Amino acid sequence: MEETPSSTSANAPSGLEHIPTEDLLRLKEQLEAKVEEKKEVEKPMSKEEAGKGIVAPPVLEEAVAPWQVKVANRLRESLTTTDAAKAIPIIWSPQVELGAQPKRVMRALGIVDTTLRGSPGNKFYFPKVPTVLEAVDATEGVKPDELAVTVDRLEITVKEIIAAISVTRQVVEQITFNVVDVLTDLLSEGVANKEDKDVLAALNAATGIAGTLYGGGKSAEGDLVAADVLNTDLIADGVTAMRKEKREPRYVIIHPAQENALLKSDKFINAAQYGGREVILNGEIGQWLGIRVLKTTQVPTGTGAGGITTYHAFLISERVWVEEVKRDPEVEPKYEPGERKTYMYGTMEYGLGVLNPKGIVKIITA
């Protein structure tokens, strides 16, 4: 009897006969899990809400949702479950670090070490060796004098920093990925600004530097007046002071108030270079005679004559300081029922130390 197409299809070999049953069952479970991951499920709704015609917003499954939606969902869920709150740092923290990268100015100019990451302890010792050595002429049969080389160590103590913001429960319940973007940007900026501020504070407090220069030819910060602004002559004097210490200047970090004076200087504009083939650093406004000029509002300030604000710019060489990063930025949430607020804490652990003070010239102006 001739077989029908359906009976032929039913009896045809599938190619799965030789695969163990347990492997087939495992494959079936994996396929079912994948299907479930791609589903969009609705948030459970109470009878009261249903009676009022309230439609619950959809909750996207994590496997297909972008990170902003994941965070938004977790923030809403964290109002009632601690499991969601525990998951937030895992999803959100990497995005805060990514957001902080384009806001940092100083990190790219120093040495960044991560030896302590994931390790116990809060102290790190970085080898400190002379950066400038000079050989001598050799004479046959004569023993050369030993070079006075002292290998020391720089001790760096790691600390924790924190940036906190709060959001009311009403906002959390209606939160969208756009709000998450705003919160991420705020936390990233807080972490990046604090990091830059600490680096510049370390440079400002360093001893044994190549020199300190004051605007207007003054000899003390308290004597500075409003007309004693930053100019190219001061930068040139800083270059000379550093090169006398056999260091080569690479960067000058200034405040936007000092930038204003430079941009009005014909000497700076005529010699500045823009739009070259090199990668532009965060905060960079150009190059002056091969020295990269960067600006940041985190430059330390002081007080001049009559109470005017003064600004501490820095001309630096390479390998001037070390930053030990123990923990990258993390976001931790906490809901306070009594306040009806969710607090987000952005934290980070790092330490700083000046390695080569002779590669620093401080330029203080109005």
Describe this structure in words.
- It is a single chain.
- The protein is built from 10 helices and 16 strands.
- The strands form 4 sheets. Strands 7, 8, 9, 10, 11, 12, 13 and 16 form an 8-stranded mixed sheet that branches. It has a 4-stranded mixed sheet with strand order 3-14-15-6. A two-stranded antiparallel ribbon has the order 1-2.
- Helix 4 packs antiparallel against helix 5 and helix 4 crosses helix 7.
- The protein is globular.
- It starts with a helix and ends with a strand.
- The N terminus is likely disordered.
Q: Uncertain spans, ≥5 residues at pLDDT below 50?
A: 1-10, 37-43, 49-64
Q: Taking Cα atoms only, what radius of gyration do you get, to the nearest Å? A: 30 Å
The H/E string reads HHEHEHHEEEEHHEHEHHEEEEEEEE
Output the structural class: alpha+beta
Strand content: 25-35%
Tally of strands: 16
The helical percent reads 25-40%
Shape: globular
Would you tell me the overall average pLDDT?
A: 82
Per DSSP, the total helix count is: 10
Distance between the termini: 105 Å
Largest sheet: 8 strands, mixed
Short description:
The protein is of the alpha+beta class and about 375 residues long. It has helices at about 5-10, 20-35, 45-50, 65-75, 80-100, 170-175, 175-205, 230-245, 255-265, 265-270, and strands spanning about 40, 60, 110-115, 125-130, 150-155, 160-170, 210-215, 250-255, 270-275, 285-290, 290-295, 300-305, 310-315, 320-335, 340-355, 360-365.
